[in-house]
What we know:
Blueprint: H1 5-8, E1 13-15, E2 39-45, E3 48-53, E4 58-63, E5 69-76, H2 90-97, H3 108-114, E6 118-123, E7 128-135, H4 140-154, H5 159-177, H6 180-192, H7 206-211, H8 214-224, E8 230-236, H9 240-250, E9 286-294, H10 302-313, H11 319-325, E10 332-338, E11 344-352, H12 358-369, H13 379-397, H14 400-413, H15 418-428, H16 431-441, E12 447-448, H17 469-473, H18 492-498, E13 500-503, E14 509-514, E15 521-527, H19 533-536, H20 540-549, H21 559-568, E16 572-576, E17 579-585, H22 589-601, H23 607-623, H24 628-640, H25 654-663, H26 666-676, E18 683-688, H27 692-703, E19 726-730, E20 737-745, H28 754-764, H29 771-779, E21 786-791, E22 799-807, H30 812-829, H31 833-851, H32 854-866, H33 872-882, H34 886-896, E23 903-908
Parallel strand pairs: 4-8, 14-18, 19-23
Antiparallel strand pairs: 1-6, 2-3, 3-4, 5-7, 5-8, 6-7, 9-11, 9-12, 10-11, 13-14, 15-17, 15-18, 16-17, 20-22, 20-23, 21-22
Helix pairs in contact: 2-5, 4-9, 10-13, 10-15, 10-16, 11-12, 20-26, 22-27, 23-25, 28-34, 29-30, 30-34
Amino acid sequence: MQIRRAARAALFVALFAFTNLAGLAPLAHAATAALPAGITKGPALGGISEYRLANGLKVLLVPDPSLETVTVNVTYLVGSRHEGYGEYGMAHLLEHLMFKGTPHHPNIKNDFTKRGARYNGTTSFDRTNYFETLSAGGDSLAFALAMEADRMVNSYISKKDLDSEMTVVRNEFESGENNPYAVLRNQTLAAAFQWHNYGHPVIGNRADIENVPIARLQAFYHRYYQPDNAVLVIGGKFDESAALKLAAQTFGRIPKPSRVLIPTYTTEPTQNGEHDIVVRRVGNVQIVSALYHMPPGTHPDYAAVDLLVSVLSNQPSGRLHKALVESGKASSIFGDDEQQREGGWIYVGATVPQDKPVDVARDALIETVEGFAAHPVTAEEVERARTRALNQFEQLMNDSRGLAITLSEFIALGDWRLVFWYRDRIAAVTTEDVQRVATTYLKRSNRTVGLFMPTATPDRAEIPAPPDLAAELKGYHTGTQIARGEAFDPTPEHIEARVIRRTLPGGMKLALLPKKTRGGTVIAQLNLRWGDEASKANRAEACSLAGAMLSRGTTKHTRAELRDALDKLKAHVSVGLNGASIDTVRANLPGAFELVAEMLRTPSFPAQEFEELKRSLLTGIDSQRSDPSALAALEITRYLNPWPADHWYYTPTLDERAARVRATSLDDVRRCHDELVGASDATLSVVGDFDPAEIAAVVDKLFGDWKSPRPYHRIPMRYFDIAAADRTINTPDKANAIFRAGLNLPLRDDDPDFPALVLGNYLLGGSTDARLTRRIREKEGLSYGVGSWLTAGAEDAVGEFGVYAIYAPQNRDRVESLVRSEIHDALDEGFPHEEVETAKRGLLHSRQIARSQDGNLAGRLAAYLEIDRTFRWDTDFEARIAKLSPTDVQEALRRHLDPAKLTVVKAGDFKGSSAKSAGK
Length: 920
């Protein structure tokens, strides 16, 4: 289903925060009172209501009282499709500048940080959006609406900000240039779309990013960033009447613009024959791909297109997997589609190991994709695809925050109601529809892979125009209704009061937190603890492969049958030797547990699947050989943690990992599972809508008699006192470089200094308004991503402080100098009182919101079971943070962080650039 487009839009994201705020607010009430002046009511579907302001702004309300947060999402109907010559990448560049402030909000990121907000902005082909999630209490919604209304028309968009942010965006562009998949996809799009702007990547053209005049950006902003070209979505816990009044008071004051927007009218001509594109760059993995033009996302055919892509690309039952991976012609396949307003496309492909002929994979790919005339689609394939698509829709409807943000994709198509209309189209697609679409569009003359070949009888795929949405949606209704969850207080005290802990007769420890959730969702986290240091020695690779094989077949079901069974249960499951996670709905949780138990206890370890897995792993290893990020991380991890080669915690080199994968036999894998793994020392947490007694009985029946073959003993971590090192890795033809620095710490999380160290790291590089970000990204414009982290052991005194940054290779020395300068300043001068107080609020709010997310809460409960900890620890820890002074933070940092012991690793094309600083 095309809700996947929200995830794909993240390729073009400008990421600004990872924290958000939680609090309390009264339950939302329906907006039944008289509407504020200037607001009229529009259609309402599936719990979503539309309103319109006199200036043209649409407002959508998506209430969900079960949350403790409110999300505001503003979608502007402008994206890279609207850019002109010399402006490619301007929409995305403007998205960055929209966070630079206004006269009333001069530091938007700092405002968000103070409130612990989780925020972001993304740009795509047809739209740009900005969203933030905050606590549902207090003035959060009033703040967010006032700020968004302010930056809609009053953003600085200044030359000064462009000069600093351009280099950040250029660095983001360069990071994409490191990815062979992204490079190939962009150039394939360029060959397929010779006239339409869909052929240009959203990130833009390097020369345009570097040289676009500020006047053009300002004109673009004033033209498109107006209320009549925007849709405001408010989701989560809020009072609907109050929200409409706030919208009228903030956005309603903006006058309706007098300018008239000219619709885009460029249409991509019908393709007359195969196109071919070859990219030759440094790398270690061969890739073959093919792109086919498709109708606009609102065309009646597109639902069948969506299912067709699933028929091709599903793993392991899809046609491409069977034709290329199972045959050994490729190590992995991919398949995707882009549902766009003015014409979409299907993009499929495969990765091919270097020792395999790429032409064979290419021919097999094309034969499979264009082979539906000879091998028609089956009803089973269509139903499998439909089940998966409808499950995605239901999951989206159960996540009001995700829905509030994902509505941007359907707004960009032309109308938010398409989210329901499209779901109904998916449900109604027939096998004949999918077959017709396959033979209509998947043909040679519509393919971007081949050569131009003249022919006397052209066989063209005519792409229809977008339909009349007003006619399509007139009188449209849907029966989709989503059950609302309960209001839940995510404070440690309330969580602790609700948790049910018990130990089953077989030894498994349970932490159960039942509560009503939107859509009846429930999340479970099962952790298996097994083996000891001696029994795990020299078995890391075998056990890793054993874990990866669990979902590839059991004594009762094949890999494809397992996937189909999980889809029918609407269950998202991840399984490995260390346990499993389950995300499903109340009625299906017992069935999901049964399948998980089957995978964990009775895997069949099929030989063909084992060989496919090894090929895929070896291809993945090869892909890292020229990747600066992977190489830098591997180098610093190996240096700071020099475990013996036979130890469970040892990190092998890429060559060692490849050799170990090749040398591991299926018998090695079976022995790891059979000789070590059991549930005697397991822990399980469940959070959401479920019956605790029922689930305890189910789990006891499924796992109670699964005894571990030998006693479990935790393998202790070890602190290594490592001398500082400075290492450089050259990666030719990579436009983006990586900086990694690390320092081992003899630190447990019960150390008296730990709260101060956590806050100190948050101030230095642990948030998007931290010192490193403000200096290196915001002021100097040298890095798209920079930050730091700090860890400490819960049982062993083993921790780490680290710093990362991405940058252009010529800025190597400047970036490292600035990192060291900021660390020294923190140690020498400390942090002022107001900065510390702001950071304390942001950090505490981010921890609160993390507990409001069921997946995080389930993981925390399971981890706490293993170390006999309760949420009283959180209460004490957060109380200690709240009392910290600037002096406490500075002194703790001085006691534990020694910059002279910092190990630094840099990876990039330093021979291909001057490697000298080009920054300020």
